[in-house]
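does this look right to u?? threonylcarbamoyladenylate version
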Amino acid sequence: MAEISQNIAKAIELLNNDELVAIPTETVYGLAGKAISDDALLKIFAVKNRPKFNPLILHLSSLERAKQYVEYIPDLAYKLAEQFIPGPITFLLQKSAKVPDLVTAGSDLVAVRVPNHTLTLELLNKLDFPICAPSANPFEYISPTSAEHVNNQLGEKIKLILDGGECKVGIESTIISLVDKPTIYRKGGVSIEQIEEVIGKVEIHKFIDENPVSPGNLKSHYSPNIPSLLGNIDELAKDFVGKRIGILNFNKINQKFDPKNQLVLALDSSLETAAKNLFKYLRELDNFDVDVILLEEVPNIGLGLSINDRLKRAAKNT
Ligand code: TXA
Ligand code: MG
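got this back:
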């Protein structure tokens, strides 16, 4: 069983020895390993049961530290960093020869990110190498936002989970390529509107919804085990008369159904609250005694775009 603690010294020792450690970030928990060790990287893919064509994000304590792993840092990156780093944003940049092919799945681009979490920044500051940290969930399941979530699924496979409490943002970082025209590869914790306020109009990668090159965008990502459908709850429910229905609402209980099988993402109607609760509630619903889970979309603005993106991938009908 994994130790669940704040033992940074032990985390450093394990990472130095090519072992994995689960770490908290502001977005979701990560499964961390030394980024410049093929042994450690192979363990990450094995523990997550993740295909190797799916590249990993380098996590560092500052953008400065990324310098040796990228060809250059463009001005746009510094501009965005001023506003959002440390924070829930990941830059795709031209990689340097120092980055192992296993990290980038053979691509010329490498993803770099500075997470905003005190415990993990302290850890990263004490390491003289970057770590790779995909979300600490089995491939295609819901991302973890607490140490307990990680322990439930990966606790038998790793030695240490650093406990940094519940993730404050609750959905993964926004991925933006800055090598050519700024292009969003994954909608996430920094909204597109926030980014455009700083650097102007950005593109949305055209494959993001259909044929993803960024496998965080795989259609069946974030899926609960119980069949889940997204749309108008009352309409969807017509197909499930006599069945037990679980419901994830945006901001209020649906009076037409049994309240005990319902969760509300944000009683305060805030999209920040909804993001923070999203993965926790999807997991809870997956443990309900129901035949189907019905998901309601949230308002499609700001963080709502990132939340609806996750809901679509969790659902089987969208
Ligand atoms: O918020 C986050 O970013 C979390 C926390 C733990 O930091 N990490 C995370 O990692 O979400 P992961 O591995 O679950 O998702 C990383 C996404 C994948 O969809 C991957 O395809 C994409 O980043 N990615 C990584 N490197 C890439 C590259 N060189 N080109 C295109 N996509 C890349
Ligand atoms: Mg993931």
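The chain has a mean pLDDT of 95. idk if thats expected tbh
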